Amino acid sequence: MSASTQRETLWGALAEPWDLLIIGGGITGASVLREATRAGVKALLVEQRDFAWGTSSRSSKLVHGGLRYLATGDVHLVRQSIRERKRLLAEGDGLVRPLDFMLASHPKEGGKHWQGRAGIFVYELLTGRWPRGNHATSRLHELEPSLVREERLIGVPYDEAWVDDARLVLRIVREAVAAGGAALNHVRVTGLLREEGRVAGVELWDTVGQRSATVRARAVVNATGVWADSVRAHLSGAPKLRPLRGSHLVFSSQRFPLAHGISFRHPRGDRFVCVMPWEDSTLVGTTDLDHSTPLDQEPSISSEEVAYLMEAVESRFPALGLTVDDVVSCYAGVRPVISSGASDPSKESREHLVLEEEGLVTVTGGKLTTCRAIAHDALRALRRRIPELAALEPEGPFLGTPPALDDAPLSPEARLRLRGRYGADAPALVAAAHAGELDAVPGTSTLWAELRWAARNENVVHLDDLLLRRVRLGLLLPRGGEAHLPAIRALCQRELGWDDARWESEARAYLALWRTHYALPERPRLSAVNEVRLATSLANPVQLRTVNLPGGPVHYADYGGSGPTVVMLHGLGGCYLNWLPAAPLLTKHARVLAVDLIGFGRTPIAGRSVGVEAQRQMLHHFLTEVVGGPAVLVGNSWGGLVALAHAARAPETTAGLVLVSPAQPPPRGTRLDPAQASRLVLHTMPGVGEYKVWREGKRTGARGLFMDLLTLGCADVRRVPQEVVEENTALIAERMERMPLGHSASYLRATRSMILTLLGRNRFESWVHGVRAPTLLVHGRQDRLVPVASSEALAALRPDWSFEPMDDIGHVPQMEDAPRFVARMVRWLDESKAAPRLSPALVARQA
Ligand SMILES: Cc1cc2nc3c(=O)[nH]c(=O)nc-3n(C[C@H](O)[C@H](O)[C@H](O)COP(=O)(O)OP(=O)(O)OC[C@H]3O[C@@H](n4cnc5c(N)ncnc54)[C@H](O)[C@@H]3O)c2cc1C
């Protein structure tokens, strides 16, 4: 029966009663399915994307004894990990492979050096072997010639094992299904069914067939890893998880040859970095950072993580001269770690959690290595509801024994590989191979036959299922294996039952996904936004540029267009992408550039002031050096204040001024609310304000911070395009990681400067009077940040300005109702004669 027929048959059987329903097709869900099935329980697993799509295909690929957990005193976890590793090495030979590791350590690390050595001593004893002698410097260099030549650097040996993580999940799922279990990928749980106050099933949505179903089960397990809180939220369970991102770089083994895994301390700080051979490559990882981008978006490595990992590699392997150009691919995964509130992410415990709430058993937070033991813990919690589970043998075998492949025309290595990865299917895979398909894809050990087998039998729904998880060519080959796509197509298209159009659209989607999430990040990472713009067939996709100006580099977005130049400045805490909804509409009438103010978005802050005057000078240099003549300045909120200051001080560069809910003092005579005044004082106090925003950021994450700002600024947040939210959130997340106090430092310093400027009301009013250019003042009537009365008072000071209060809009009209805002601006451009005063030949000089 073909994979798609099997899928249809299973979908048709969903209405039958099930004993157990498992949400999540990562290592945990797969192991629960395997063990429940072994106990004779009728179990169904559903996975919203692909099996192992989540963290289980993005790990460090180690089946490890958990050496680092000794440092946090988790001896139980270490013992359990060692036991499970031994089992997986024996049962999963070929899929799990032993790997000699060394800690490269130097006495100059002081106490840490001795601590590391002592830790490995204890660890080796726990594994049941007497610790081996350390490798002295000369021996270390014989073993790993590319390691830095440093007197007294020693290698402390210990044992580990590597694994193809996604294939481990797939093998467990396949064996569970062969034993009577059921599993569906690309089926999402959208709701929980509750009867008499207990969870009695789930609502499903099939993203392939675009259909829904209700499934009843005696018990439901939530094995959704880092998504566990979102499933628990259906029961109003308070969040328990702290999503922590870890990222890796992949190099080819020719460029970065290694015989051992090596761990060492990062030159900046105490964290360990590991480099190790894996498949035909060398992995470098990992990082440990709070992850605040939405979980339904594939995680990606940030530029800062790339720099951090490259710094580690360069410091320990300088002779290789590795650069980012040698990186073949990158990947990032998010750990489901149980939050204790520790300030350092690396201090959070890696123990798993089993929790029962209204009949829903949640199991999360574990590791690949301990998957079997974790599954048993989860199933123990279900025994009351499913008594058959009591029969489960706690120490029984986990993986099946694959048949020998003695007669197959394969090298011993290839035989081991197929038996480990495909278990009982290995002989059929070999039998299904066409001529030449038992050869390896060049540059890898992956056999062509694996692709045919997976395409035919392994529930591949999208091309990334095949190339990133069934086989790992997407990680191992440059550009995700693009050069081999024609050969893969010839082999797989018919097996998958795809016509030409389907193949081509899958290939496009795969390559776009690879570029966005598995390639080195561009700086800035904007492909998603570009694609949105291209998809809406606007004439000009946004181009992101950097220019080096006196004072430092400045980032700006060139939205294109022709005609007079319009330069846009964003509000506090935002970035040039806040103009994304409006700017493209304006390109029919003008050349549009949006500048990132210092310290927000991507314009760097290091060594620079973020105050009003510094921002104004940056704008001045931008207008002089990039625009080359006067422009219409458009400023929203804080950007409005900067634009106003500039228009008054440098009229020769200002052809027109558009102030959009600008930051301004309250109208004269307004009495400040004492509570608000004290909040302002707190905000402006050095240190205190930063700390407050930093705490908020810790609590709500980058998305929370941005959503709070949006909620304040908008009459209706839903009108802000999703890509603006996503890109701002990503930027805030990057800033939170980059700076000691994250986002707060630049944000608070700018707020302080703004408030101090506004307190000097006389200076503000002198700027207002000093503006010579035609001016449009726009204000959203539902603005909660700057009352409309302030703009009314401003308009009264300058009756020659056009004043446009806009209904049903808050502080950010250009995001909430871009078409109306742009239409008003274009009318004003026509009426005000601002545009004809512009030089028509204002060509941006590009960095
Ligand atoms: C960088 C990094 C390195 C690591 N290295 C190692 C290592 O070397 N060794 C080790 O043992 N462990 C390692 N770990 C830990 C290990 O990878 C994870 O703990 C483990 O993969 C978690 O598996 P899981 O099944 O719980 O979660 P996941 O693999 O994330 O699976 C959960 C699944 O649930 C699905 N899901 C979510 N919501 C729904 C829904 N509503 N409906 C249906 N499905 C849903 C998701 O799509 C996902 O596929 C590492 C983790 C990271 C992040």
From TrEMBL:
Essential cofactor(s): FAD
AB hydrolase-1 domain span: 564-817
Any GO BP annotation: glycerol metabolic process
Record bears the keyword Flavoprotein: yes
Alphabetic keyword roster: FAD, Flavoprotein, Glycerol metabolism, Oxidoreductase
Family: Belongs to the FAD-dependent glycerol-3-phosphate dehydrogenase family.
Protein name: Glycerol-3-phosphate dehydrogenase
